[in-house]
Every structure is written in C-alpha cells, then in structure tokens.
Predict the 3D structure of the following.
Amino acid sequence: MPVKKYIHDSEKIEFREHRVPGKVLAIRIFAGFIVSLGLSLIYFLLISKMFGSPKQTLLEKEVEIRRHEFAMMMAEMEHYSELLEDIRISDEVRFRPVLELDPVDDEVRSGGMGGLRRHTHLEGYASSDVMIAATEKLSNIRRRAAVQSRSFGEVRDASDEWNRRLEHLPLIRPVRSSVRMGDVFGIRSRHPVTGRIGVPHRGQDFRAPLGTNIYATGAGTVTEAGWSIGGYGYYVKIDHGFGYESLYAHLSKIEVSEGDMVVRGDLVGLSGSTGVSTGPHLHYEVIYRGVHRDPRNYFHEILTDAEYKDMISARNTNLFLAR
Ligand SMILES: [Zn+2]
C-alpha cells in the first residue's frame, strides 16, 4: 500500500503532501532494478561456486560412477591376472618339464612392455590415470593369455606324441606272465645247438610250451613274417616307429602278414621250435636304432597272469590262456 509522505511548511504552518517528480521516480525504480539484478547475479554465482549447477552436479555424479566402475574392473582384471600367473606356474613347473618341453622364453612371456607413451589419446582427462592403468592391465592380460594359449597348444601336441609313443614302444612281455624266462640277453658261454663259444644272445628266451600265444608288445607295422634263413625258423618282426623294432622267433605258426598294422596285444603267432632250436621256446628281441637291447629293460615282471590277461584281453578275449 503506497504510503503518502507529508512535509511541514513552516511558512504557511501546514502539512502538505510531498510529491516526488516523475523523472526522479523513474530513475529510482530503474536503479532499484539494477541493484536487485546485480544481487541476484552475485547470489547465483556464489551458489554455483559452492554447490554447482544441476547439470554440473549430474555430470560429476556420472564421473564418480565411472570411476567406481573402473575401480571394480581393475579389481576383476587383477583377479584374472593372478589366475593367469597360477596357470603359468603350473605350465612351467608341471606340464612342460614332464613332456620335456623347454620353458617359454621370459621375453616371450613378458612380451615387451611398451610403455605409457602409447596412450597419449587417453591423456588430459580427469580420469586419465585410471583409464591408462586399466588399458595397460587389459593389454597385459591379453598378451599373457595369448602366450599361455600357444604354450598349451605345444603341451597338447607333446602329450599326444607322448601317448602315441607309449602305445608304440615294445613295453610288455610277449607271452603271459606265468611263462618262465630262459636264456637271458648277453654273451653266453656256449650256444645250445651250435656249441659255439662267446656268441652273443641278442634276445630274451621264454620257456613257452608249443602253441603258446605270442602277442605284439607295442603298436606298429609287421615288416617281416615268414621263414628265416638265419636260424630264427618262422619269425615275425614289427617296426614300432620311434627307432624301435621287436622280433619273435622259432614260431610254430604265424598269425600276421607283412604290412599288417598291429596294436599292443594283437596275436602275432604261436610258439614252436622251428629254426635253430633245441625245443619249444620263444626267442624275443628288442632292437633300438639297429642295436639289440636287453628286452628285460622294457617290461617288468610284477604282473600276475590275471593282470597280464586284463592288459591283453581288450584285443584277444577268447584267445588268451586257451592254449
Ligand atoms: Zn634265444
């Protein structure tokens, strides 16, 4: 409500209304407006400075969330990094040495660390440190995983090769366990048939009764199967690969032919006394890179007949011990 102002006129001894001229009034109103506008601006700036604008507050919150997400991602990456390290240790300490693989070169494992300069595009932001650290960590994990994957490829190949080798090497007795051994490998004082002295016995004899099953001692290819002019009588020779051959002599019957592929436990023939022999027995040889080896070093004698049968029976269920 407008309040009227009065001033005292001492000459006329009366009060009269005080009228402000219109121009002065307009100036006062304008000045008031300017002052309040200025105050509002100062107030706004102060508030903004202290609490930020709503948009700015939202952005800051967003940045905070992103930083938190980055931190969680870093923790997860650290976890995977530790997992990779455990795998690397198993690989270097267990798998590769067992398979006779050389350790993966340290330089290949660390893969040339590069350096922070590669991330110039990430520099200059509030979160640059976090982003660069995360990127570094991720590329480190990626590289180590790739190296590990290659190493496991080698381990798998070596393990396949090792299994193939185990299947092929002549690693069992050629006859069931209850058949006793006869003359051993080495120089014997006197040959039982020829009577010659100091002639090496190049195999291991087994006192197998006539018609005893003779089994392939490892997988391979039959390279010879027939009559020997050298005194072996009917004999079979198998090439096992990896430098190994085995030979089965004095047989009464041959059950395979040249070129046949056999696996360990396949029946190759029946024992006999053909060739230069004093009576039914099996003469068995193991040859490595052309040199005769003591066959006893390639099998062990602790298997019982039942255990030997279990080992063989997968291939020859009905044949074993029938004779
Ligand atoms: Zn012999």
Remarks:
- The longest helix spans residues 54-98.
- The chain has three domains: 6-51, 64-168, 186-316.
- Residues 183, 201, 203, 205, 283 surround zinc ion (CB under 6 Å).
